Amino acid sequence: MFKQFNQLHQAQGLFVLPNVWNAKSAIYFAEQKFPAIATSSAAVANSLGYKDGEEMPFTDYLFIIKRIVSSIQIPLSVDMEMGYGVSAEAIYANIMKLVNLGVTGINIEDSVINKSGRVLKDPEVFAKTIENIKRRLLANNINLFINVRCDTYILNVANKQHETNQRLKRYEASGADGIFLPCICAEDDIAAAVAQTTLPLNVMCVPALPGFDALNKLGVKRVSMGPFLFNKIYDTIPSLSQAITTGNNFSPIL
Fold this sequence. Notes:
By secondary structure, the chain is an alpha/beta fold. The chain has ten helices and eleven strands.
């Protein structure tokens, strides 16, 4: 499925990628003829009662991923967050667990969470991790779409356009297959990012994001839903439950 998934990033039209949190949500999107799906780590974690940021045990995540893969016949990309491992060796071992389940692609981010919060990793150190992963995959004849999540915009760092440009060049050279810039939304910033790399650019659903036609014209290749669909669905539970108790009947959910 790698070839199919990779080609979706090269098409003329915008590749809209839904983010799921369990097998049932994956099945629904497959039935709606979406060509591929991805997990949202935040949505999966929250559905299991954990906070995002690798608080969810990787074994729990693997169980959900296994159920999703067994329920669909389209490519699945997995949000790996920071890789669920400190060393490149540990991250690669986790990647192989995903490969063995039948996963087609991953997202992996260039930030880390420490005592002071989330901060960017050194770009050279992170790029070497990507190089190590890519080299080992190729040596074993394994095709896996590596979408590098660059967190300059989600963290709103100083001089973020310049910092983004430098990181995109380095990550492309490291062997990444795609670039993900969550929380980028200004058209000038998007255009600048597209101009800095030959890799397909992925952006995420945020309130100020331009529409699909505008994103396509700007050169964006992939747009994902993030945790927003999950949040929207579960945000309706309080009002529905209140309507049931207020009305003394189940008509709000029937």
